[in-house]
Structure prediction request, 195 residues.
Amino acid sequence: MRRARSTAVLAMLLAGAIGVIASTQTWIDVTLDDGAQQTLAVPGAEALPVLTPLSLAALALGAAMSIVGPVLRYVFGALGVLIAAFVGFGTAQILFATPVSATAATVTDATGISGTDAVASLVSGLSLTPWPAVTLLAQVVLLAASLFTLVTARRWASGASRKYRTATEAGAETGRPHDAIDSWDDLSRGDDPTA
Prediction:
């Protein structure tokens, strides 16, 4: 099941990385009805403000998933499902409904006009780039990886956590005799080797 862990970790990292990259890319081109037919580019981070922090959280989950124990695998898998659902829902709204509210911050910065109704009256056209679709696909990958984690986490090999054990625990597994250095390590942990 080592391959299962690698698959889940890589899928979470990929989905998180795509989300972070998508947050810096143009999602919506807004044409303003201001006489000059000015076009503004709305980046993903402004169209969906939670995209960057939740994508970074997905990256962190993927990185941490490679070293955590069985209990935290389930916790991280559940968090991954929540992140994918939240970002996926917001992205789907932009992709299928293209609300003017997703462009309001960019339009307000450019024109000084605020308020949803005022911004809507100023916008004459909206066109989407491929980035919302790419982001939605990344959230599907994150959701699949998180569900896969929840289903298979119990059967994952615990090899990655072995490197974080103490030298004494590792020595006990190899069956080598207890020596003077091990006794000093016992004292450092507060164990009395003479007891």
The mean pLDDT is 85. The chain has two domains: 2-164, 166-195. DSSP finds ten helices and three strands in the chain.
